Amino acid sequence: RATMKSLRFLSAEAFVSNEEFARKSLSAVAHNLFPLLFKASYLLEQGEVIHDLVENWPLVDFNMGKLLGATVDYQEDLSYRTCSVCLESCLTGLRDYVLNNFSPYRKRLKVVDLTGIKDVEVQFCECKKTMGRWARTQLLSKLCLELVVYLQQAQCNPGTFEISIDVLIDLFVTERNYELVVEALLKKCCCPLKICCVAFRSDNLTLQKFFYIIKLTDPSLLRKLEIVHNVRLEMEHLEILFNSIHFPLLMSLTLPARTFNVQRFTATDEQMLTNIGEKMGEMTHLTELCMSFSILTGRIQKLLSPLKTPLKMLDVSNCSLNHADMAYLANSFHANHLEALDLSGHDIPELYPSTFFKLLSHSSSVLRSLTLEDCNIQDTHVNMLILGLSPCQKLHEFKFVGNPLSSQALKHLFTFLCELPMLKNVEFPVPRDCYPIGITYPIDDASICRFDHQKYESVAEDLNLILLQANREDVKASTPLFGSYDAAVQETNNELGAYLIKSFKETLEKFTTSFNKMS
């Protein structure tokens, strides 16, 4: 459905669509029209106009999320468009704002906020080329270093050295861009553009490099910390991190797989876990916690009870939780505040059905996202699941891939899901009857694609027809066989793959060496 545009916005589009005329006329444009022209230029992907608008920006702040978000003149949110042409023009315009000695406007810009840009799977921009979080980190670092070099070599206007602009950004650092980002952060004091890291994600980094760069980011400003793939952070390293660095504003923490493993705990490890829980308790803003693929059996209370602020998001998928863990979650003060919950990889119907439904009941008034992948939910459990989900009237997203449900059970469940008014996204499993008889769950990667694709397509059509007949075209239903879309992984998958091959090769070499010594 086309979004309505005001006459002002239509006029702005007409103005920027003639690139040469628009660029020549900017000096005569009123300050308060710059945001309107910026959004119109972004929609039409007028890169050179975007560059000149930013280079001559007359206002105190430049907030991408607000500029591209829904406005009175044009309701459509463009912050989901990570268009390479637009973003590169934007960042180079920012560099040239600093260098431009002939701007018709007095330089007032103090804060640039790039954190409102959202990376999504489907892009609607014409060029179809995206600039993801990693590439934005790379380009901003490169431009900052270029500025430092230029200011050291050239005869600049003395006023240039007085410019100081905080650039708020979500940094994404891997081995490949590490050196560049470190150099940019080290030279921050010499650069008019001050990189202010609000969120930090690291993949494919050695621990030594991770610890070094995290200190450079100014952790006192950090609101989100994601340590994800191929950073070998274990519990003792996490304790060192929390003991040596203070994160007063941290709201969201993601830890890598296997950070915790209670199966090999000693008395010292138990004390370490207690210390980590206490340190997290000091993070009074912490409301989002992701600890997937760790073994936390019986220790959830020890980790979460020191928290003084209720969690809004909790991901404990594949963490081998037992009944005591689920009972703690169901009865804790977190339960009434959980907006997003991921319990994938736990046999909920077998281990703790009533406790899980108690947790669901307590969070039902606020729950927006529920993920129950590979939870052994079968046809016989569907009526109970419907009963548990009925109060969850604010649910936006429900993911339950990997459960052994028949096509008939899925149709029954979809008929109910149509009644959830806020629902927008459903990820459902390939029906059990599309796989060969005797398939065992959870299905391994080798067998996951060996199903009757024609039958699946037929069932998927029936499920979409159920949505259509209930006037729920707004609900997107899909079956991502290998997990949901991850923009960061998508952007750096070549590096991730190379790192995995290297790790495998090193392991093989160690094994061969050990074997030869034994021989």
Q: Please, could you describe this protein's structure?
A:
This protein has 20 helices and 13 strands. It is of the alpha/beta class. Strands 1-2-3-4-5-6-7-8-9-10-11-12-13 form a 13-stranded parallel β-sheet. Strand 5, helix 10 (235-244) and strand 6 form a beta-alpha-beta unit. Helix 2 (19-25) packs parallel to helix 4 (47-55), helix 7 packs across helix 8 (178-186) and helix 17 (407-417) runs parallel beside helix 18 (453-469). The longest helix has 26 residues, at 493-518. It is globular.
Strand order of the largest sheet: 1-2-3-4-5-6-7-8-9-10-11-12-13
Radius of gyration: 26 Å
Q: Catalogue the unreliable spans.
A: none
Biggest beta sheet summary: 13 strands, parallel
The proportion of residues forming helix, as a percent range, comes to 40-55%
Number of helices: 20
Shape designation: globular
Question: Care to count the β-strands?
Answer: 13
Measured distance between first and last alpha carbons? 71 Å
Pairing-aware structural class of the strands and helices? alpha/beta
What is the overall pLDDT average? 93
Query: Strand percentage, roughly?
Result: 5-15%
Protein name: Leucine-rich repeat-containing protein 14B
GO cellular component, one term: cytoplasm
Family: Belongs to the PRAME family. LRRC14 subfamily.
Organism: Manacus vitellinus (golden-collared manakin)
